[in-house]
Amino acid sequence: MFPFSEADPVRHSSPLPKTSEVVIIGGGVIGVSTALFLANRDVQVTLLEKGRIAAEQSSRNWGWIRKQGRDADELPIVIEACRLWQQLADECGEDIGLRQTGVTYLARTAKDMAGFENFMKIAAAHDLDTHLVDGDRVQSMMPGMNRRFAGAMTTPSDMRAEPWLAVPALARLAARKGVRIIENCAVRALDIAGGAVAAVWTEQGKIETSSVLVAGGAWSSLFLRKHGVSIPQLSVRATVAATEPLPEFHAGAAIEDDIAFRRRQDGGYTLAPGGSNLLYVGPDAFRHATKYLPSLMAHPFGTRYLPKAPAGFPDSWLTPREWTAETISPFERKRVLNPAPGKSELDAIERGFNSLFPQLKPVRLKTTWAGMIDAMPDVVPVVDRVAAIGGLFVATGMSGHGFGIGPGIGRVVSDLIQGNEIGHNLQRFRLSRFTDGSPIRLGPAI
Question: Are 338 and 3 in contact (CB under 8 A)?
C-alpha cells in the first residue's frame, strides 16, 4: 500500500555477502537504476536500503518524466533517461503507468510567456518538440478551465509514470539480473584504509568492497559528513494528494501558479501546490545558509520555514552526528521518512483545483502524503567521485527532478564507477563547485 513504510513486509532479503565489487547505499530510483546498469556489465553489485525500496521520495514524487524546463546541462541526460524509461518499462514486463502524454507549463501573463523563451532556445538546440501555444489553444487542450491563460509552453513527447509502481519494478528487474538487494539493512559507516574505501559496515556486518555509491537522497549529507565530506544539501517537505477517479480533462501533466496536476493510471489526478515547499530549520540549514541565499532571493516566497524537524529526521536538532560502526545509527532509528502532509498545503491544493475546475467540485481526495526532497543550493544534482576518498562516489541532491532523470543518472554513474566514457559533460554536477569559488548558478525551480 502507498505510501510505503517500514511496516511493509521486506521483499528483498538476500544474505549479506562477505565481498562485493560495488556497494550502493540507498534503494531509490538513483541507486536502483545504477545497480541495473552495473549488472548489465556483469559487475557484482550489492544494494543496501535502510528501510524499503523506493519508500521515500522515489515513490512520493509527482510522477513526471520531462525534458521541458530542465537545466541546460541536465537536459542531455534527461533525453537519454526518457529513452531508457521506455526500454526499461519493456524489460520489466510490468505496467508501470508509463504514458507519453506531455507536460505543459501554463502562463497567466505575457510576462510569463516571455519567460518561457529562455527554455525555447535550449529546446531548439536539442531538437525537442517543445513549443508555445496561445490562450485559445490552451482552452482546447484543457476544456472547462475557469481561467483564461495567456498561453503555455508544452512538450508532447514528455511522459508520466506511477513512481510507487515503477521503482519497485526496476528493483525486481535488477534482482533478476543478479543484483543483491537487502532491505532493512542500514550502512553505518565506511571502512577507509590508505585514503580509499576498503569496506562498509552495516547493521548486519561488514562487506569488503573497493567502490561505494552514496545515493541516499535526503540522508546523503548526514552520512557523508561523518566521513569528513561536506555537501550543502538540505531537504524540504513537499505535500501531494491523489483524487478519486475523475472524468479526463487532460491526459498529461500541467502546472500553473497555484496548482500542479497529472493524470494517473487509476483514473484520478495527482495534485500538488504550484510552488510551495517547507524547510525544517536545523544545524545544516544554518551551516549552509549563505549558499542558499541566491535561491532565496530568486524565489523569496517559494519556501516556508519551521524551527525544527520531526524527531529522527536528517537535520533534526536531536539527530546524532556521531556514531560508530558498532552502535545504532540514525539510519536505523528512522528507516523511512514519512512526514505528515501539511494542512495548509492540502487546503491550497483543494482551493487551487476547485477554482480551476469548478465543474468537478468538490474534489474528492483519495489519499494524501508528503515526502522529503533532497535539495541543492543551485537546484542541480551532485554526481561525482569524492576526491578525498578513493572509490567513493556520490549521486544525490536531485532537487525534485530525480524520478524522471533516474535511469539516465544511473547509466552515467555506472560508467563513472567503472571508469568508462560517460558520454556527457559532468562539470556542472561536480561536488567541488561549492568550495572552489564558483558562483552559484541557479537551475530551474520546477
Answer: yes
Beta partners for residue 402, in sequence order: none
- Three-class SS state of 51: coil
Q: At a CB cut-off of 8 Å and minimum separation 6, what does 299 contact?
A: 275, 445
Q: Is the dihedral of CA 141, 139, 250, 61 positive or negative?
A: positive
Q: Which CATH code for domain 22-102+157-434?
A: 3.50.50.60
Helix (DSSP H) and strand (DSSP E) numbers for the chain? 12, 21
Q: Determine contact, residues 406/426, Cβ cutoff 8 Å.
A: no
All structural domains of the chain with their residue ranges = 22-102+157-434, 103-156
Q: Which of 160, 394, 366 is nearest to 243 (CA)?
A: 366
Centre a 10 Å sphere on the Cβ of residue 95 and count the other Cβ atoms it contains. Answer: 13
What's the pTM value of the predicted model, to 2 decimals?
A: 0.97
The C-alpha atoms of residue 289 and residue 267 are separated, in whole angstroms, by: 42
- Give the closest residue to 156 by CA, choosing from 180, 171, 137: 137
Which among 130, 116, 216, 129 has a CA at the least distance from the CA of 444?
116
The predicted-structure confidence for 281-316, as pLDDT tens digits, reads as follows 999 999 999 998 888 777 765 778 888 999 999 999
- How crowded is the C-beta side of 292, counted as CA atoms within 13 Å? 22
Q: Provide CB contacts within 8 A for 347, sequence distance 6+.
A: none
**pLDDT tens digits for range 167-186:** 999 999 999 999 999 999 99
Per DSSP, 289 falls in state G
Per DSSP, helices labelled H in 185-238 are 220-226
What cell numbers appear for 105 in the block?
A: 507549463
What does the alpha-carbon distance between residue 351 and residue 12 come to, in Å, rounded to a whole number?
41
Question: What is the spatial distance between Cα 391 and Cα 381, in angstroms, rounded to a whole number?
Answer: 19
Size of the chain, expressed as the number of residues it contains: 446
Strands of the sheet containing 187-193, edge to edge, are: 187-193, 196-202, 205-208
